[in-house]
Amino acid sequence: MRFMVSLEDILSAHERVKGVAHDTLVLTSRTIDRMVGARVFFKCENFQRTGAFKFRGAYNALHQMTPEERELGVITHSSGNHAQALALAASLLDIKCTVVMPENSARVKIEATRGYGARVVLCKPTLEARESTTNEIIARTGSLLIHPYDNERIIAGAGTAALELIEKVSDLDVVVCPVGGGGLLSGTAIATKGLSPDTRVIAVEPKNADDAYLGYKSGTWVPSVNPQTIADGLRTSLGKINYPIILEKVDDIVTVSEAEIIEAMRLLWERMKIVVEPSGAVPLAGLLSHKDLFAGERVGVILSGGNIDLTDFFDQLHTRVQS
Description:
This protein has 14 helices and ten strands. The chain is α/β, with parallel strands linked by helices.
């Protein structure tokens, strides 16, 4: 099957983001190796600019815009990592950026998006409100929509994380990453199969948001309907560009429970001393709950991000100190 994104697109994207996006660390943990029964290599995109892999795709997409397109500015609707990534990329390239965010978004994410230079427009916390507000602004200003995952240039940029992982760590038996909208997974699959055809690609998804799992197993696209998962970055439906890539190039999708996600996040915090958000901890949860798939193997894991709102945690500390 011929796809809209190729390995060559990812290699070109890597040249664009080189020196701008961080070539993030690959870390290991002997404790986690023992627990999983495998040799595990973590590609730490929680250390990426804006705290997630999303900056790779955002910068790659905006860098390729024509001068005329840049003059129009860009827009997206997002409550999380894509909002911050697009805001920073636009600021670096001197492009006007508008981000439509639900009014119930975490205050820390709203302020971070503004801090990176974007104009934030708040809307009601529904998908309909997000889309209608975005479309109204596009009609009025001509701004160009940069979708967070259903976009060829976003996918190619996301794939550069796996490219760097494979360049750093040879002879991987499998690469594991989370799946939500599928931008990271499809980019990871293209990069991995292009550079190391015998390496398997396995995605992990919350059981409470298992539309990708169901769509992969059935061969029919399944929408995400009101998912209730702590992994807020994985609540979206698979993109229409991403889905056929995933069907063709991904070897399996497995699911994990909410308790398993929380325990994986706690393990990364306590044993590796790194802050990883719930969505980013999902792949490790998959390794721990499906050990038979990885026993004795060399496993690359993409930790997708580390953005988590710690306001309540620190408020509780302040309350405890004051009492």
